[in-house]
Amino acid sequence: MTARAMGQPVRATARSVRIALGVVWLADGLLQLQPKMFGVGFANDVILPSARGQPGIVSGAITHTAHLISTQPVATDLVFAGTQLLIGAGLLIHETVKPALALSFVWALGIWSLGEGFGGLLDGTAMPLTGAPGAALLYVAIGLMVWPRKKPAGPDGPAAGEGLLGEAGAQTIWALVWCGLGILWLLPASSDSGALSSALSGVAASQPGWLAHLQLAVAHSLRSGGASVAVGAGLLSFVIGVGPLLTRRSTIFLIGGAAMALDFWVLGQGFGQFTSGMTTDPNTGPLLILLAFALAPASGRERPGGEVHADDRTVVDLHHYLPEFVEVAGGTHGSLDTGTHGLVGAPPESGERPILVRSAP
Q1: CA 290 and chain centroid, separation
Q2: Of 225, 230, 248, which Cα lies nearest the Cα of 132?
Q3: Residues contacting residue 253 through CB under 8 Å, at least 6 positions apart
Q4: Do 112 and 47 touch, CB atoms closer than 8 A?
Q5: How many CB atoms within 10 Å of residue 203?
Q6: Closest C-alpha to 73, from 99, 105, 112, 47
Q7: pLDDT-based confidence at 9, cuts 50/70/90?
Q8: In sequence order, which residues have a C-beta less than 8 Å from that of residue 193 and are 6 or more positions away?
Q9: What's the pTM?
Q10: Is the CB of residue 115 less than 8 Å from the CB of residue 47?
Q11: E strands, the chain, where?
Q12: pLDDT digit string, tens, across residues 94-120
């Protein structure tokens, strides 16, 4: 009998989130093998632009990195691709999850600092719409949320509840990410008049015709009202971030965050600009959606009217699910009127003793 048939909560697991994260890392490795990546274009067009406007020490480090890559572009690119493929494969295998996550943290932070220029946070160009604070930083956030721990969480919480930080820690990461996005929306890079319109027009220049048409249409509509849209998006981001900390009914906030992330990905990030031949990752949109997925509560956990009690046990109608003779507390057996009784608790294979209750006629 399936968990859905028994009315048990259905949810994503930390394992499923790690697999999804591994698939993204594998995709990053494959993107690194695009033909254009084996030339100096990777160093000059992807890495070096991140140095502009940075503080001196950061700009110098990024410029030096780009120079090293340009001297041996093929070998360097193979190292980049191989490392990311190794991380992705490691996340798919249970025995290698922890080493893969540890390597991913080091690699992602290196990419975030030297490849993404700290997501534009230091040079005043960070825009949530186009990918701030950087996809690499979200790899670290998701990895921390689903790092395996020795004592698994209960079966009815979100996937992140199984991770090292627990559900509360994962909700804190969610709040930090979305409140951080809210702050970025209110900064001049996004809230200045014409900023959003200019950003969308710039992204549209390298997109397929149908997508460029959509982006340019939105850019035109934001020429005069972009500042108010940025302020509204900033306030909404704060609400999305703190919502799960203030109420157990977090689903609406997670859906809102995923919907905003999808808008970012389509309009401001052009589906990660995969058609350019020079993209290195899917950008922040899919990762913000995966972040929401990791925090999604088990289905059936948030029912109105108290149908699911504080201990989250499931009420099962015996008329549909149990035979005439069932085991009740104390090990005795008896014939039950299945039309007027129910069972509260987990299915027998869980090892928990069920509790017999009387339901409405």
Answers
A1: 3
A2: 230
A3: 239, 240, 243, 244
A4: no
A5: 22
A6: 47
A7: low
A8: 224, 226, 227
A9: 0.80
A10: yes
A11: 315-317, 325-327, 333-335, 341-344, 355-358
A12: 999 999 999 999 999 999 999 999 999
In the chain, pLDDT over 90 holds for what percent of residues?
Answer: 71
Asked if the model's pLDDT at residue 297 lies above 80, the reply is yes
Q: Give the neighbor-by-neighbor strand order of the sheet with 341-344.
A: 315-317, 341-344, 355-358
Per-domain boundaries in the chain: 14-304, 313-358
| Helix, coil or strand: residue 293 | helix
Separation between Cα atoms, residue 76 and residue 14, nearest integer Å: 33
Segment (H or E) for 184: helix 166-186
Q: Give the closest residue to 53 by CA, choosing from 182, 186, 189, 177.
A: 189
Confidence of residue 48 (pLDDT cuts 50, 70, 90): very high
Burial of 352 (0-12, 13-18, 19+ CB in 10 A): exposed
Q: Which two tokens stand for residue 124?
A: 């005043």
**d(C-alpha 291, C-alpha 354), whole Å:** 35
* Angle, helix 251-263 to helix 226-246, in steps of 10 degrees: 150
12 in helix, strand or coil?
coil
Residue 355 pLDDT exceeds 70? no
- Which among 24, 27, 38, 35 has a CA at the least distance from the CA of 78? 38
Q: Whole-angstrom Cα distance, residue 77 to residue 327?
A: 63
Closest CA to 65 of 30, 110, 102: 110
User: 3-state SS string over 14-83?
Assistant: HHHHHHHHHHHHHHHHHHCCCHHHHCCHHHHHHHHHHHCCCCHHHHHHHHHHHHHHHHCHHHHHHHHHHH
What is the distance between the alpha carbons of residues 106 and 243, in angstroms, rounded to a whole number?
31
β 325-327/355-358 pair status: unpaired
Distance in angstroms (rounded) separating the CA atoms of residues 106 and 211:
35
Tokens representing residue 10 in the block: 């259905």
- pLDDT at 102 (0 to 100): 98
Q: Six-digit token pair at 189?
A: 């890079």
Distance CA 312, CA 248 (A): 13
